[in-house]
Write a structure and sequence with these properties.
Elements: H1 3-12, H2 15-26, E1 29-30, H3 31-38, H4 48-60, E2 64-69, E3 72-77, H5 80-108
Antiparallel strand pairs: 1-3, 2-3
Length: 118
């Protein structure tokens, strides 16, 4: 697996990072907006430092792009790395599973004979 794909899988492995991506998929947000959404650490949420660490992991994986506007940093989701991982890993497996399921369906309906049965 390429290091790019490793970074994407690692970024997607965390539920907080997936929640950040879900929010950014709806609309770009400032880092402050993200921090407000996830709450303060003393109220059971994660603090600004925690949010920034998660956003940094997403940025290194190419899943979040940002643009500075004065003191604000606007964060945007970038779905391209997810699409690459999907094309490389998920689509191939889904295609094979669908082919196997269709073969099993045909066997169950008597439209095919089992492999190796002459």
């Amino acid at each position: 697996m390429s290091s790019e794909a490793d970074l994407v899988w690692k970024a997607l492995a965390d539920p907080t990072r997936r929640a950040i991506l879900d929010l950014l998929a709806k609309a770009p947000l400032t880092t402050g907006d993200l921090c407000e959404h996830f709450g303060l650490a003393r109220h059971g949420g994660i603090g600004r430092t925690g949010v920034m660490k998660h956003v940094d992991v997403l940025h290194r994986a190419g899943l979040v792009l940002f643009r500075r506007e004065g003191r604000q940093r606007w964060n945007y989701v970038n779905a391209v790395p997810i699409q690459r991982v999907c094309d490389r890993w998920v689509s191939g497996h889904v295609r094979d599973l669908a082919r196997s399921a269709n073969h099993l369906k045909d066997l169950a309906e008597g439209k095919r004979r089992p492999l190796g049965s002459g």
